[in-house]
Specification:
Chains A, B, C, D, E, F: Belongs to the HyuE racemase family. Chains A, B, C, D, E, F: Pfam families: Asp_Glu_race (PF01177). Chains A, B, C, D, E, F: It comes from Albimonas donghaensis. The structure is a homohexamer. By secondary structure, chain A is α/β, with parallel strands linked by helices. Chain A has two domains: 134 residues, Rossmann fold; 105 residues, Rossmann fold, CATH 3.40.50.12500. In chain A, 38% of the residues lie in helices and 14% in strands. The two termini of chain A are 24 Å apart. The mean pLDDT of chain A is 95. The interface between C and D is large, with 39 and 39 residues.
Chain lengths: 247, 247, 247, 247, 247, 247
């Protein structure tokens, strides 16, 4: 099975980190194909950036469809997720959606912890989009990120663990999701003393993709998420223009 | 007051039609500045197209901000609306959102009527996004559009009126919204026999923009819709890159 | 265009204040006709008072319909709003409903700030009635009103601004609505340092009325808000009895 | 125990019918005191009429409080219910609310059947007010009432039973509420063949009042339903003016 | 009227306490038949224990149906309530459901106070099951129970009253429900100074049962809660096996 | 990895069918350990039967915990699911919950199709329990099951496919779940012409269990689903009594 790991951010180090965790949890026969955006933004953190990067993700998928069995959109706010499900005939998963769905059977309420308040509104949109507000115990962030984004899992570790503990103890979260690509893998490092369950979004998204390939290899391609009819376009990247044109 | 009427579709005839209705309802001192997309799609009808056209809308706004007091995104599914509110320091309205909000004080339940089933899923997203499902009496469309999109208000008129009547009589809609840019102006043509209220989306969006300019000329620029910090980018249209870069 | 500004309270000073703000935002051709209740209560602040004052509002409208294009019910809890929409063939708006609807395109969450806790339950009913609980960041009031009600915008100014700041900072409100007729105009006085958007309810209600006159001059008169058949009555004010009797 | 049965309609025959059913289900020591409105409308069927009749109900209660232990507002849409709970220090129940609450432990979904479509919107408000939309299987009415309102239980009996059967069979209702004062007692006449449970609103309201007198004899008089401070008024019926004035 | 008071816990002292309160509020002709579980747990406090004790409750009902008019499941989380309604042709009430329903006409928001945090999740399930989250002001418990469970109404009295006061003052509860069988009767002991309404669950459940016997003596036996067809079983207590087998 | 496939029904043929599908989708290293109930009912189809069979499932798990990594409760209504999550320190999944969660990323609305109307109410409870009513397109069943339950996938095949087609075409379902253990495997047999996605519940539950073992091997054991303290019991199966006693 070949899964495209589509990082719509331009930071290669982030893709590497995500791919490493993805490979650790993937089944033996699964090949992870990491892709890094070549235009857009170094790191997306808002709805306006996600509007643009979601379109970039569609280009990246269209240009690498050959032989792919599934797609993971590897940015926590899931830019372009619904559009990709509409457009491509294979399963597409997103880090935020997959992590929240994995949290449901593991507890009654989940929290999200991330490293900067800048992404709060965008992340909260994902909770709303899935209709999970009744199960959501809140978002906790530090006042600001410290140091380079790619390093926060190391440099801000203590702060992030404290936020997760506060989510468990004060917000009554049963599950904590460490949201944001730079925190990939961090959930697996919580020890047995951690008083709630920690969920890793990229791991959840990869395993959900593997599951969907077995359950529904053609993806979500009919009815409400039907592929629109072929349509001419101007200015799109060639593979996407071809795909959307019905080619 | 200067309002940008941003049509993220590439069809000039559609912009002309929208601008004509906009000018008819605008207050004496309001100048309507119509803009038509120069790339993207002739006519958007799906989430994947809206993902791309929403980014195009951001470019169009960034390139024409000078002297503008408000923006109307002139496509019924409101592509890029939330992103634009985040990014620009002036009021931004959308045809779907404004039409639904205008419907609320005019009845208990509203319906949407449009000319093709292809846009159903995308339009329903707008209802969900505003949390208006409890007030929504449903969407009615013909089995397929007939003839050129730009002409449907004329060619499909009888069909569309029949759908509106069915919405009122069978679905208990008090208000019918004629959704989709090609139907601009049609609501004003329903006679006194029409058994419910018909709402015109572009008129609603323009007048809502005028109202917001008076109430909150800086737009929705703080808190949950705060403008993200300046950020470098690659491949964006120059004015948008400059704006998002903090320039 | 002639808009009845119906103050169902008996305090003339309050009507004057409301009319002044209304005239400031109304379009050039709009005439504001202020009306003050001649029976009922000096100032409504509860559901039981609103039950009675809502009926008074209906009388006031019925007695002044001649030549009117729209009605604004000028008390924040919107007494008699739904009944008036049912009964009269022209657009009717309310301060609470219009303010909350204006808040929606300006932010993700809104708060209400008022000058006394006595009106809390009644005001919260308005939030529920519009189904806006998911967008509501809470109500903040001082422990008690200070001095004459008509003067609180001046005497309690500092306290009210502090409550608005707390709503923005602690409750994550993007928009603050200053609720209650005695606070009319206050939102326009917040300076550029104010960290969120302030919305003025009477301004919103007047401009919404202007908009609805253009969109649907006959008001919300069919379907779920249909005018009931003519019916005999005993003890009603003459113009209302005549109107409800089908006259 | 003395229960005021407050009919805010002016039709004495309706009060008699309601009182007869109330006395049939009341506990041995319970005295039913029927009151008929002396002004307002012969029969309320809309929100505008209920706005006025709810104020009439408050007058009727204020004028007959002496020795009363509880109040039943004996019109199906519960005019003035929340206001009465705020104002008076004893339990107050309403026919619609009590019937819907009695339906909950008797089935998963309930329907309302009534004799005229004119009351539909008003009755649906009661469902919304209790937040019971998820348990509501719908409202069924004939196209129009036939004959004098006071006689419909007899003249329209077959039609009404057919509507109840349709609610059970087509709408999957487990419980049918016969709504509207003229149908009082009808639920008790459904035979053992009736395929779902029929609930009588006035019976439910009287027994709920008896229960609340034992559980909370002071009624709902604090917090969110606190009695407003005494306030001067003009034009109110004397006992109500005295009561609201703090007398 | 004969009401089975089914305590699915094995503690006789608790049954005695519940029966005493039940008899105090029951109507003159009502006979309360208390039953104590002979297997299962001394005191249920979790979903897993309720899964088992709910089945025990079904056995207890099936073995004592002869001559019974209604059943009260006398444990606050209502174990087996929905199953019992499905299975038996008479009204069945539960302490949690009945208390919450009694709270609704007595205030806008209710809180639950209990003596141990161990039951929190289970009790919160009851709130969700009735769809009452919008009316729920929260659950307050001490950090841990003190002394024998059967005595907590006495030994922890001051703590529990303080929690109730905090619910009223800090959480804006209008009604406080003292949840948990060992607190039966406590609500009636709150003095006139208590700033909100206190509701006793066993009293509410018994009076609700009396009411339902009059409204619908056959219970909730059709449609969505229809009795399943007779079915063979292995290992069930004989009367339950017989009842479920169609005997 | 060792997964207990716990069939709380007593029909061995059903267990065999479920185990066959489970083994087909399980990862290479996964061992499926099928268990069939030895008491309870041949086939559960109601809430009352599920109340009892859920307790049986707890016994089956407690008696086979040794070496197990996860549990699948192999009956579509998920009897005992929440209780098992509370009680055991490993991931527990259920067929209904897993199937509905797998449906979410595959479409906007899902339907359930099953072979008998008898299970409707019980199945609908699962939809409510996950809060998925807004995504639910309805349940379709034939008027009655035909022939032995274990054979319905063959004998009723055409009827069931027709119901699935009706769900897709008339109810606008994007995903159809074939609910009920006797239909295990059927979803995989829908051909490429099937106009929506078909999801197999046992496959979804097994793969979800595999995923959760990797994400959170200790299961949902803290916070809102915390294991209750050890407690004495009477009459429970020995391994369950020991487990619940803290042994």
């Amino acid at each position: 099975m070949k899964i495209l790991l589509v990082n719509p951010n331009m930071t290669q180090a982030m893709t590497d980190r995500l791919a490493a965790v993805a490979r650790r949890v993937a089944a033996p026969g699964t090949e992870i194909v990491p892709l890094t955006a070549t235009h857009g933004f170094p790191y997306i953190s808002s709805r306006s950036e996600a509007q643009i990067a979601g379109a970039v993700a569609l280009e990246m998928i269209a240009g690498n469809l050959e032989g792919a069995d599934a797609v993971v959109i590897a940015a926590f706010g899931d830019p372009g997720l619904k559009a990709a499900r509409e457009l491509f005939d294979l399963p597409v998963t997103g880090m935020a959606e997959a992590a929240m769905m994995a949290a449901l059977p593991l507890g009654e309420r989940f929290s999200i912890v991330t490293f900067t308040p800048l992404m709060s509104s965008w992340f909260l949109d994902s909770v709303e989009a899935l209709g999970l507000a009744p199960r959501f115990a809140g978002l906790r962030t530090p006042p600001a990120a410290e140091g380079p984004v790619a390093d926060v899992a190391a440099t801000m570790r203590e702060t992030l663990v404290d936020l997760a503990l506060a989510a468990a103890r004060e917000d009554r979260a049963d599950v904590v999701i460490f949201g944001g690509a730079p925190l990939a893998g961090m959930a697996f490092e919580m020890g047995p003393d951690f008083p709630c369950v920690a969920v890793d979004p990229i791991a959840a998204a990869v395993m959900q993709a593997e599951m969907l390939v077995r359950l529904a290899p053609g993806g979500a391609c009919k009815g409400g998420l039907a592929r629109p009819p072929g349509k001419a376009s101007v200015g799109l990247a060639a593979p996407l223009a071809r795909h959307m044109g019905g080619g």
